[in-house]
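Good morning C.,

I know you're traveling, so I'll keep this short. The sequence:
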Amino acid sequence: MRVKVFFVLLSCAGLLMTSCIKDEPKNNECDIISAWVEGEESEKNFYQLSQMRQDVLSTDKEIVFNVRSLISLSQMAVHFELTPGATIEPANGSLQNFSDGPVIYTVTSEDGAWQKKYVVSFREATMPSYKFSFEHVDVDKVTADNTSTYNIFYEIDKNGNRHNIWASGNPGVALVQYKWTPDMFPTHSIDDGYEGKGVCLRTQYAGDLGRDMGKPIAAGNLFFGSFDLISVLFNPLKSTVFGIDIDREPVRVTGYYKYKPGEKFTDMKMKEIAGRIDEASIYAVFYRNEADGKKVWLYGDDVLTSPHIVKKAEVAALPPTDKWTRFEMFFEGGDADVELLANHGYNLALVFSSSKDGAKFEGAIGSVLYVDEVEVSFEDEE
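The tokens, ready to paste straight into the viewer:
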């Protein structure tokens, strides 16, 4: 599995990685790298051609294709790119009936020692709601031999379908922290939110390994999108993949927060920057999600600077407060193309972080941001 290989690389940090990898048993990976649907008839089911292919992250257990309608899904063939030597059941490219719900595929490594199950489904491209109370919480872990568990947040639509639209950096922290419970991670659920449950985002020490690699802190974060575990070690700014597709033009975002900055602000070398006080961050980005027929994503290195951005919203300041306080931010920038909008040609990224410069590994250990009851409002609602 790709996560297993990642552990090998992680344990070899600072050593001669090539010789370490040679010693690792070969052909024990069992991952889906990408999944796609092809054919002119299948094209009619999608808003955009780029939606017919899904790149699959190492931590993904679910593959969802967003379609116009669930009609005509009784005979659909999904094709897969697998890690070398792996096999899949049901057979790669075989016709399956997705009209009655998801199909479970099992990938087996070439040596037969490892298996991984994926839930593959087709879903109408609609969101359950844009009012987020963070009541739906689950626990997960990076691998079966990792005893730490962390919270993941999700949404449920009116038909009972689960939408895994939220991601955080918790999987990266779980790689180096064992026997941790969810409340020990930078991003976790709390029972005493503004109403019901809420989210706690806390900036923490990333451990000695993180410090030695120039990544000494882990800011608590929560965002629309996914987290690419494989990128953590070599290109951490690419590990945060921002955005979910949307068919409405956002106008503003509101919600409630509490914030307390940590006592000592440090840079990526853990050197204190005297006089600097940590700041939390809440912002949103509305961007074009396709270019030249290919899917476009924003990452930690371009989420606020990409030329594909149409408009942005950001809370100007989040003063420290121990009481739930309302925040509001408005989108500023250009207007969406009506036809593209109707065809899900845009993505929305909504981001919360306990340290504004946490992506640069700068901030104050102990900074805590709480958020709850967040709502996105749209042009047609104003």
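Safe travels,
E.
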